[in-house]
Amino acid sequence: MTIGSDTKNKATVDENSPLLPKIQESDVKFNGASFSSSVFNLSTTIIGAGIMALPACVKKLGIVPGLTAIVLTALLTEKSIDFMIRFSRAGNISSYGSLMGDSFGKYGKSLVQICIIVNNIGCLIIYLIIIGDVISGTSSSGIHHYGILEGWFGLHWWTGRSFVIAFTTLVVVAPLVNFKRIDSLRFTSALSVGLAGVFLVIVVGISIVKIISGGIMIPRLFPIITDLASVFELFTTVPVLVTAYICHTNVHSINNELKDSTQMHRVVKTSGVLCSCVYLLSSFFGFLLFGEETLDDVLANFDIDLEIPFGLILNDIIRISYAAHLMFVFPVIFYAARINIDGLLFSSSSTRPLVVDNFRFGSITFSLVGIIFLGANFIPSIWYIFQFFGATTAICVGFIFPAAITLRDKYNISTKSDKTLSIFMIVLSVSSSVVAIYSNVYALFKKNEAY
């Protein structure tokens, strides 16, 4: 029996009590996840496409506001997760959907499940698009940036984007998404964090070498503001910043399997610090390295001779390591999408856990992989997805919903500062989201008029 299934236990409990059971009924041999594996899984949930998209944000905002925005987003993310954990423990609640349902009823539960499903599917489509772009090539602003296979072997049917995405889906993604416990992904999560580290170390090393040789100009510290439209354009970075830190969808699942659930706060803080350092360094040195030529996907910049020893080899290592990193991130994000689809569609019609119902598990997994594969083949640019999902579902999942739960305060545990911060989160999120959507729609119309 999961904590939260007993309706009699709705009273406030000790904050140090477990949020979820350590051992699931379907797997009595599982003794619980370790602190390190939980950190790796949560960090992998955070570090996805943010590494390659945040340098473009820093280009728009400038070094000082850009790096400051990354830190502030990290702090707000940590606080919003803290709200979730505290209220989950107070109500013995086992999932994000149930947490919203506890405060706002069945419609609140369905809303958060829909947002998680839409957001995670969007993220997974982004990952496949990036993998396809990195390996097979992409075009930006009328310029073609060759991929790894194009650079090595030239243009062939098997170096094309569609084949690369299909091969990655069948050979790499399909086997990994069939694990039924998130802790089973601890080794691939550790490897994904390590690959992100490889990417970061090489980028920092290249930047330092070019600084010493005098091949890098002083980066722009502040944004270029010429009119009101340029001010609004700065808000288009908000969805990317928000999406970069979304990990709320796996918080309950990770805590569910954590051997000592009192360590969850440390898991969140450790993962937050680790990921923030990676984001700050990759954003700063990525923009420093390419300056005003930094593309929306900074990986596309690594197709030229960097004019350093072994530059072309380092380019390939960077792109291969990051593509592999995203392949290992994929199943962690997929895990939350599958759970919420099952909860939305089958919670009232089936009492069997998803992990023991092989037909239901396989059907959802197969259908979800198919949708993501089709999306990756027909959506041309990751920036459009970032803007749409980041300004809507991601901002709701990451900030608006946790703040709303805190303001609802069903168990009377919110402090005055909690409620003040929650109001600030909601106002900032809604206003930023509205301006970002307006700016993107305006830019899209201007672009169409130009044609």
TrEMBL record:
Keywords assigned: Amino-acid transport, Membrane, Transmembrane, Transmembrane helix, Transport
Membrane topology, as annotated: Multi-pass membrane protein
InterPro entries per record: AA_transpt_TM (IPR013057)
GO MF annotation: an example: L-amino acid transmembrane transporter activity
GO CC terms of this entry: organelle membrane
Record-annotated membrane-spanning stretches: 111-135, 155-177, 189-212, 224-246, 267-290, 317-337, 358-376, 382-401, 421-445
Family annotation (Pfam families): Aa_trans
Localization per record: Membrane
Main location: membrane
Domain Amino acid transporter transmembrane, residue spans: 33-438
Top-level taxon of origin: Eukaryota
Protein name as catalogued: Amino acid transporter avt6a
High-level lineage: Eukaryota, Viridiplantae, Streptophyta, Embryophyta, Tracheophyta
